[in-house]
């Protein structure tokens, strides 16, 4: 049985299906707080160290928002050049220092394995907000949570899912983590669509096959896919040796309403971890899909707050006490779900 309290969240490998169900159950209970129907002070006095040494919008802000919604405070550092890492300080020393200022730490760093290295020096739990091309476990959990909700709305579960993953499957850490989590389920069909140079790492393909799932690898977004989920990704240009190298692939797999209608079922759910590259030469997920009811990208971002609230509550051992510290919302609020 997975023990959450006091433990780091570094990799999806530490989750089994029971642990995932627990996270999702707690995430469900966070909805009234995220919708500002009520608020809680359960983490009053607690401090999150939100350390983002690589660019981020939604992961950084949603970690902070999730902690604030539980009543806690957030201290941040953003960018490598603004931190003492730029002066040669080790991850170990940084962790020793900052864990003295915080009750829990969320961290993103451009090097694979760096968050685990940092955690070795930390005196408080550390949550991985993305380490290079390696993993993005909280994104994978919110993606899976979204898949479960979307499937439930069609009266279906995750077992038997048919998923197409498109784009940069080599450097895209979200597809690595999501694939590993999906391997815990039964009878899935993965269709991996990417240029050969950006294909899914072989160890993850092996994991998919070893778990008994069907695997199709192709370079073409053509023919009719029976995908339930189309998971589009961005070319991770920041991980390429040069911008010119990245530009060879940007715009190769565009998805717009016309292509969607041609290649996918009318009920296929469109997901993307975001940010989508909306510049003309890439435009991997066209704005003309914004009115498509199966576009789940903003439901994903909303779900991210719920899942991160659940992880904070579980890791700090307050998941059963949240409503004991309820307060009314006394300002105008008309938030709905995306
Ligand atoms: N999905 C994701 O990690 O987005 P950010 O880079 O904006 O955090």
Describe the structure.
The chain is an alpha/beta fold. It is 33% helix and 15% strand. It has helices at 17-29, 31-34, 58-69, 91-98, 114-121, 137-152, 173-182, 202-210, 243-247, 257-263, 297-315; strands at residues 39-40, 47-52, 73-78, 104-109, 126-131, 162-166, 189-193, 214-218, 229-232, 269-271, 326-327. The strands form three sheets. A five-stranded parallel sheet has the order 8-7-6-9-10, covered by helices on one side. A four-stranded parallel sheet has the order 3-2-4-5, sandwiched between helices. Helix 8 (202-210) links the parallel strand 7 (189-193) and strand 8. The mean pLDDT is 96. Bound molecules: phosphoric acid mono(formamide)ester. Phosphoric acid mono(formamide)ester binds at residues 56-60, 130, 139, 273-275.
At a glance:
With 338 residues, this protein is α/β, with parallel strands linked by helices.
Strand order of the largest sheet: 8-7-6-9-10
Number of strands: 11
Shape: globular
Q: How would a textbook summarize the main sheet?
A: 5 strands, parallel
Kindly name the structural category.
alpha/beta
Order of helices and strands: HHEEHEHEHEHEHEHEEHHEHE
- Arithmetic mean pLDDT: 96
How much helix, percentage-wise, in residues? 25-40%
Low-confidence stretches: none
Radius of gyration (CA) equals: 20 Å
